[in-house]
């Protein structure tokens, strides 16, 4: 357990429920200093009242709110060593069933919200030549699934942003990790909105997936508290992973997708190579 005055400072977004709450609580249990954030701090009062905690209001859809939260964290603790971009929302619908306003909301929270926080913490991390940025995506950020097409698209976007960011900031001493959970017992599935105008043609694909998500609430295999411990272990490792799968289902799905892609790439390898200009000489 770190000494309080030397303990790394973590900023965690979306701490009112689920992963964020479990991560913040575990970090405080382990003696870290934690900036506990939520849109309304009343929802995190129990965590914010603990030693070494600072509860700060944070709405990731507002640049001024994000900048203010990071500024308050730095004024209180002097720095932010690790940021965990956990805040996110879901939406259940086939791609064709998803209205534009729902798409924009998904991307504003899940992608642009993450990017806003990254922009806010990077100046301090660059100045210190140290820091870790942890972006929670989803197994849906690596593999597409029915009924969550635009959710997956936003999470794929965070994966791509993180991969590019890693190339830019690792030479400056800053680490970037993405975390891809499968289904965990959070309120994500239960609180996600969904289409009000389902199309019958998609009932056996997106419709069936929507019903399965609702039926899974309270029965998901993943334990958020164990996920919090796994995340801290990964961030604290001498060589943290660039990507951290969480849950047996995430591991299974990711490995199967990797194998399928490799098989297809090899099968079409000659076509890929044939698209280049012929070698000279």
Order of helices and strands: EHEHEHEEHEHEHEHHEHH
> How many helical stretches?
10
Give the radius of gyration.
20 Å
CATH architecture: 3-Layer(aba) Sandwich
Residue share in helix:
40-55%
Domain Ketoreductase: 8-191
Protein name: Oxidoreductase
Pfam family, one: adh_short
Family: Belongs to the short-chain dehydrogenases/reductases (SDR) family.
Q: What labels would you give this structure?
A:
seven-stranded parallel sheet, 281 residues, NAD(P)-bd_dom_sf, alpha/beta, KR_dom, Oxidoreductase, Rossmann fold, globular
Task: Tell me what the structure shows.
The chain has 10 helices and 9 strands. The protein is an alpha/beta fold and 281 residues long. It has one domain (4-273): NAD(P)-binding Rossmann-like Domain (Rossmann fold, 3-Layer(aba) Sandwich), CATH 3.40.50.720. Helix 3 packs parallel to helix 4 (100-128) and helix 4 (100-128) packs parallel to helix 5 (149-169). The model has no long low-confidence stretch (mean pLDDT 95).
Q: What's the short version?
A:
Pfam families: adh_short. Keywords: Oxidoreductase. The chain has 281 residues and is of the alpha/beta class.
What is the strand and helix layout of this fold?
Layout lengths: L8 E4 L5 H12 L3 E6 L6 H4 L4 E5 L5 H15 L4 E4 L5 E2 L7 H29 L2 E6 L12 H21 L4 E8 L6 H4 L1 E2 L8 H14 L7 H13 L6 E4 L1 H20 L1 H5 L8
Parallel strand pairs: 1-2, 1-4, 2-3, 4-6, 5-8, 6-7, 7-9
Helix pairs in contact: 1-8, 3-4, 4-5
């Amino acid at each position: 357990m770190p000494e309080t005055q030397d303990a790394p400072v973590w900023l965690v977004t979306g701490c009112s429920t689920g992963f964020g709450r479990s991560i913040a609580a575990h970090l405080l249990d382990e003696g870290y200093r934690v900036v506990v954030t939520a849109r309304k701090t009343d929802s995190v009062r129990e965590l914010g009242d603990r030693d070494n905690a600072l509860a700060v209001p944070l709405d990731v859809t507002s640049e001024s709110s994000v900048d203010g939260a990071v500024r308050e964290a730095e004024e209180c603790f002097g720095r932010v060593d690790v940021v965990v971009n956990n805040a996110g929302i879901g939406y259940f619908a086939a791609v064709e069933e998803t209205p534009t306003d729902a798409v924009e909301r998904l991307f504003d929270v899940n992608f642009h919200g993450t990017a806003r926080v990254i922009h806010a913490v990077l100046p301090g991390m660059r100045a210190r030549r140290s820091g870790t940025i942890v972006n929670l995506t989803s197994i849906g950020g690596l593999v597409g699934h029915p009924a969550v097409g635009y959710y997956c698209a936003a999470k794929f976007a965070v994966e791509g942003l993180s991969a590019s960011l890693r190339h830019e900031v690792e030479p400056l001493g800053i680490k970037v990790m993405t975390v891809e959970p499968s289904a965990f017992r959070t309120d994500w599935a239960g609180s996600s909105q969904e289409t009000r105008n389902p199309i019958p043609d998609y009932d056996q694909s997106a419709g069936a997936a929507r019903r399965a998500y609702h039926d899974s609430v309270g029965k998901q295999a993943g334990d958020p508290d164990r996920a919090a411990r796994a995340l801290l272990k990964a961030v604290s490792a001498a060589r943290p992973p660039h990507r951290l799968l969480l849950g047996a289902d995430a591991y299974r799905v990711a490995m199967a997708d990797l194998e399928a892609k490799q098989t297809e790439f090899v099968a079409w390898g000659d076509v890929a190579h044939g698209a280049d200009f012929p070698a000279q000489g």
